[in-house]
Amino acid sequence: MMESAENYLYYSHEKLLNLIQEIGDEDVAVQEYLKNVKYAPIKDFEQGLEWFNVSDALSFKKHLKGKVVVLDFFTYCCINCMHILPDLREIENQFSVEDGLVVIGVHSAKFENEKISSNILAAVQRYNIGHPVVNDANSDMWKNCDVQCWPTLLMLGPNANPIVMLTGEGHKEDLQLYIKNALAFYKSKNQISDHKLPFLPAYHLLPDLKGPLLFPGKITNILDENNHEILAVSDTGNNRILIIKGDGTILQQIGGKKLGFKDGNLEDAEFNNPQGLAFQNKDVLFVADTENHAIRKINLKNRTVETVAGTGFQGHDRTGGNLWKKQTISSPWDVCIYRTADMDLTFHPDGKPPMRDVLIIAMAGTHQIWALFLEDTVWWKCKKYPAGACINIAGSGKEENRNNNYPNSAAFAQPSGLALCAKNKEVYIADSESSSVRRLSLVDGKVTPVVGGDRNPYNLFAFGDKDGSLFDAKLQHTLGLSATADEKTVFVADTYNHKLKKIDIAQNSVTTLVPPDGDTSNGTLRCFNEPAGMCVSFDNKKLYLADTNNHFIKIVYLGSKSNITKIEKLTLKKLTEKKSVLDKSKYTVINCKPVIVNSNGGKVITSIDVSFKNDLKLTDDAPQSWLVDLPDSTWSCVPKNGSNLKNINLVISVPLERDAKDNFADIVFSLVTCTRETCLPKNFIIRLPVVYSKDASTSVTRKIEVGASPSDVKIV
After folding, report:
1. Which are the contacts of 2, defined by CB distance < 8 A and separation ≥ 6?
2. Nearest CA to 203 among 711, 635, 651?
3. CA distance between the termini of the chain
4. CB atoms within 10 A of CB 14
5. Which residue has the higher pLDDT, 591 or 661?
6. How many Cβ atoms are within 10 Å of 406's Cβ, its own excluded?
7. 354 vs 152, residue with greater confidence
8. Pairing with 297, which of 5, 306, 482, 696 sits 20 to 30 Å away (CA)?
9. CA–CA separation, 716 and 705 (whole Å)
10. pLDDT over threshold 70, residue 269
11. What would the CATH number be for the domain defined by 584-715?
12. 585 band by pLDDT with thresholds 50, 70 and 90
């Protein structure tokens, strides 16, 4: 007899939700479900798989015995998979490994590029994934568990016994309910263990000499009042925006103090994995603050950051129409400014209609193209949009590669890059999940194919590496585009093929640009590593490229036929010393023994263990925090801040030796502690001096043990 559909693991969540509705009491229903659930234990992980964030390959028989385990089946290109990572972080903060919960990312790839472990490692670092991740390269665990889509969450009991499978995003509250009850249920049976796991943060494997950037995402440019080219870079992994000169001199750092969502002055503003950038003018820069689900406006003249769309939380609206911050949005990935003549038929005194600025947004999270109207504007079909209106202008919201004469009948698949051709009144779209480049008319909204993808709008697996025209050409998860001034050529960052290509837009054809000299990585000629953003210089003689996984900005020099003649790294250097905005007079400074680093720079892998004695402890439910304060923007650190004192593991990137007075990193702690009798705030700084030596290593490890008592804090 065939097993009924309701007994398949795929339908377990539906079955559990029905039981909750039937019984009425959530906790009682989940406990009742746990008593009766009888799915067979899953097979253990295959031997020889590559793991990240742990020093030993995990197994259900050894490490995971006695743990409630949540398997997160994901692929790192998938925007829906990215959306559940904040939920998992919140759940991991609520239930620790010692409490009995372990979250494991099972990476089962879509693209060929995603099967390579070094690329998965970079994604784990880039998306701040702190739990163990395994490369399920052959999708063995995917098949064993009968997983059918990304993302899928599979919750297991302490003997690898399946409990419930949840598909898609948006299950945080359900998962919290199920975990809470599962831990209580299995603890009552003495089946939960509080043992630790062999964690080893993936940040430790960052390159020694990567420089100050961490996974730069996008780059744009503008001319200043002296006709000098100014660049803006989204230093995505460092959650900051850098304004730099063409020679690499850093003029301004915006944000980067810590990950967060905060408006205000340039120094205190906070971002969360910012991506796309667009100058409105030399003083105003718009930012797609991707994981804050917001559009931010940077005013360089007034030195302020403000949110102009989005709330900081993921929205699910696929229509829009609300004004400014009242409109929720979802994972904006790129932006560009389109200047259009106002179509208001009202008489204009000078006979010319005024120009209006419209911010075009690649809304990856809802697979659409949106617009934020910065002024009252009459646009398509003479419809009037008030200033601040944020609205979908193209895409049904379905994840498809569907071209159509009608913009709301077209469909995109995670649009992630934009290139404006203002003269032609078109915007070109890097449609990453369909591995194609598409064209949107800004006159009537018509969506047409350019290169890549497939004629079948449902086929999102038509990827490869092939020059050609229209659907005969093949790309692999392209993320970045930039058009030349004459609007005859659009350059493509063919991200997962690690290549630069160019599109002849008149012919709808693409060709690969071959570097004159390439370096070799893993036996393959690879000058670039998942490049994600670029802009053409104003003289059209070079490209500025965000070479994301190499942690550099590359300058790509172009010949007369737009071929590559030379490639250089853009070395970043400081303009002036940074003055910390932190009032350190309120903190006790504790100096550590200096670390000695190579004169060429390097990384300092730092672990900090804070222990309490003499009846001192952290105050329950009180806010605890630490952050890293660095000398200037040529330094970087990951992570930059946190609230968990159990596992503080930092990787500090130290620049080239220079003449600065302050060669040290400050780890700033703001703790609320107490004894039985009184509360004792503990505000202290662990200062780690850096000394340069030409004979020293470029990778240095330092373990710092801090002891806190009611009377003092000191290095032990």
Report:
1. none
2. 651
3. 67
4. 13
5. 591
6. 12
7. 152
8. 482
9. 6
10. yes
11. 2.60.40
12. confident
Taking alpha carbons only, the member of 254, 272, 273 closest to residue 264 is: 254
**Mean per-residue pLDDT over the chain, rounded:** 93
DSSP H or E run through 628: strand 625-629
- pLDDT tens-digit map of 335-355: 999 999 887 656 566 667 889
pLDDT per position as a tens digit, 56-115: 999 999 999 999 999 999 999 999 999 999 999 999 999 999 999 999 999 999 999 999
Domain boundaries, the chain: 5-203, 584-715
**Axis crossing angle, helix 26-36 with helix 12-23, rounded to the nearest 10:** 130
What count of residues does the chain have? 716
Contact 632, 249 (CB under 8 A): no
- The reply to whether omega before 681 is within 30° of 0 (cis) is no
**Residue range 358-379, pLDDT digits in tens:** 999 999 999 999 999 999 999 8
Under CATH, domain 5-203 is a member of which superfamily?
A: Glutaredoxin (3.40.30.10)
Q: What is the pTM of this model?
A: 0.94
Looking up tokens 């890293």 gives: 628
- As a whole number of angstroms, the distance between CA 293 and CA 279 comes to 19
Alpha helices in 346-449 (DSSP H): none
CA distance linking residue 35 with residue 30, whole number of Å = 9
3-class DSSP state for residue 112?
Answer: helix
* Cα 296 versus chain centre, distance: 16
Distance (Å, whole) CA 39 – CA 8: 9
